[in-house]
Amino acid sequence: MKTPRASRLAAAITICISGALGLSACGSGFAGSETKNSSDAGSGPISVLIGASGEAEGNAVKSAVADWSKTSGTEASVKVASDLVQELSQGFASGKPADVFYLSPDQLSNYAANGSVEPYADTLANKDDFQPSLVKAFTYDGKFYCAPKDSSTLSLVINTDLWQAAGLTDADIPTTWDELEAAAKKLTSGNTVGLAFSPETARVAAFFPQAGGSLLSSDGKTATVNSAENVEALTFVKKMLTDGAVKYSSDLGAGWGGEAFGKQLSAMTIEGNWIEGALSKDFPNVKYRTVELPAGPEGKGTLQFTNCWGIAADSKNKPAAKALVEQLTGTTTQMAFAKAFGVMPSVKSAEAGFKKEFPAQEASIAGVEYAQTLPSQPGAADVLKDFDAKLASLRTSDPKAILDSLQTEMTATLSK
Description:
Layout: H1 4-14, E1 46-51, H2 55-72, E2 76-81, H3 84-94, E3 100-103, H4 105-113, H5 132-137, E4 139-140, E5 143-144, E6 147-148, E7 152-159, H6 160-165, H7 177-187, E8 193-197, H8 201-204, H9 207-210, H10 228-243, E9 246-248, H11 257-262, E10 266-272, H12 275-282, E11 288-291, E12 302-305, E13 308-311, H13 318-328, H14 331-341, H15 351-357, H16 362-366, E14 371-372, H17 380-391, H18 399-415
Parallel strand pairs: 1-2, 1-3, 8-9, 8-10, 12-14
Antiparallel strand pairs: 3-13, 4-5, 6-13, 7-10, 7-11, 7-12
Helix pairs in contact: 1-3, 17-18
């Protein structure tokens, strides 16, 4: 008979899930008043495993952890994984996971189900400060497992030079689907299409809540993929693609919407606030503004992306791990992260400061109030991957047939 720990190790070996998007960061200035009860931090060292898209993010986390270590007196080290998903899985399988680590919602469902992750978030001193939508994203089986470390939402990004060249003004900023389609047509000229975005669920599904739809019921137990609302939304996306004023970034030879926008192959794109760092680095001469996604028949809607700070159930120093997380998710540290690389804080106490510091991201943080998170139940990632594949041929496919097929898949997944 297997022990609970042995079961967790066996399950960890079989987990295969997609990794979270790395964010760039830089700088220091992370020390502050957020350290809680450092005397309770324990005596053992703490290891932290993160995924980073480059040196900047790694340096930012290392600096923040070093500041906490100096204040608390607890030794702590940070490793930047070359493949976070693989290294995290290997750590659990070996029985020697990192104490603290990045964890995405889809990863949480798998590791919480096999007992690898400690459900600690409800015991944090700042548990009530997290945005409600983020708490929901990291709640599994009724338990708030891990503290959200930051947040990103999708918005509409507009090239202001191309906007003006097309004779458009602030009065033309699209606030409805019809206005979005009209603006895209006016902006389409020569080799530049009006709107482009990546051919993936993580962009197209933003239209679903705007029509009043979602991929799952509010309790997360029932698939609602082929609802009339979702069919309406996907049919609208198909219409825009068919008319030619909207294209997938891949059809323009670009790897993602931000690249198509940066190369001015599109005048608008639908992207997260991480686009700021990419444009600043690779396309510094492109002038743009960010606005909320236009409302659909049932109002505003967008998608939200986030990670949490996971703590291993097998950690030998959970008190210290929790104290570190409280420091990393405190208002001062989160604002320092925001200044370093532009990601939005996960706590309500930092919202006013963020809006003041980053007025250009007002649309992004406004989206937190009504954003949906993609399904993260075990097996849902495979269904979404199939949705991505089907979206490639949306122009020549029946939207309802696509959603009917995915409804069957999602229903089967939830029943397991």
